[in-house]
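Late entry, written up from scratch paper. The run itself happened at the end of the previous shift, but nothing got recorded in the book at the time, so transcribing now.
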Amino acid sequence: MKKMVFVAIVSALILGGCSSTGVKNPGVERKITWEHAGNLPAQKGFEKNIGVAGVLSGVLNDKYVLVGGGANFPYEPVAKGGAKQSYSDVYLLQEKDGKLEVMEQINLENEIGYGSSVTTKDGVYYIGGSSNQEADNDILFFSMVDGKLAVKNVGELPFTLQNGVAVEKDGKLYVLAGKQNGVASDKMISYDLETKEVKVLASIPGGPRTQAVAQILNGELYVFSGGTSVAYTDGYKYNFKDNTWTEVAPVKVNGKEISLLGANSVKLNDKEMLVIGGFNKAVWDDANKNLGSLKGKKLDDYKAKYFGADPYEFNWNREILVYNAETNSWTTMGEVTFDAPCGAGLSVIGNKIYSINGEIKPGIRTDRMYSGTLLKK
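Output as recorded:
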């Protein structure tokens, strides 16, 4: 039991959040050019934003990028036992002259981080992900009202949720995996946004998992990777009509399987999703094993080496990956031109993809925002 608790603590230090967003008919893109789009401003009460991971992210009115919450270690680094800080700040951003400018900054009633974000045509849902235990099952809805950012609580899950998967279809939220009531889970429910009815659905195969990526493609729900103390590279699709799961191609490019644990995704079109990030499976598995089993000086030495390593030494996934549901295959658009992020905000508007903040090594975030232009093949 002690080992499992310790592993959970370690995982919490280096995990990020997942979200689900969509784009209208962008065509088929196979290359992205990236530009630095500015730095996320400081949260209320702080002079500087050192970057956050596990953020709320989405798109409003097909023109604004929504990002907020998240967590970091502002006082002492994680290697020295620093406390994690979550935030209540939410930013409404819009690109102008190549930079993301803050149009509005508000503060929520509770600090948030590591919940599940879902963009719909009407607004953005944020599910779970609160540092306040009593609010960790809330379903928040963000929208634009009279030109201003508005938020309201529209329901509650029957369990608390961290690092889960969520999508919306036909007025229902489908919430899957993550930590439900604090325990890694494989369970899925549907939540009717109008009637508030909850239905328990078929669990995903492969066992409990957190920090997976997911999108609805060709009318079915595709879920990939995630993990617990071990990173997964598997994939499954869910048929809404039959309430059944089917295994699909694992995350594999050029003969190499890739972990997407901690990554984020956006939907390019009805058949394709794009993914950025992902903890390296070998490094993740090894770290959880050693940090959960070593003791005394061996543990201290390992932690000093592990947390003191440079970002590139963690070998997080730099490939910009695309999954095609029609061909059941993965391809790459090349690599990101910045430190591979995990737990970053990822959103898409037209032919622009925005990567905001995220973790670039265990315990260390970036405050940088990037704008990527999708170029057609």
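DSSP finds three helices and 32 strands in the chain.
(Scratch paper discarded after transcription.)
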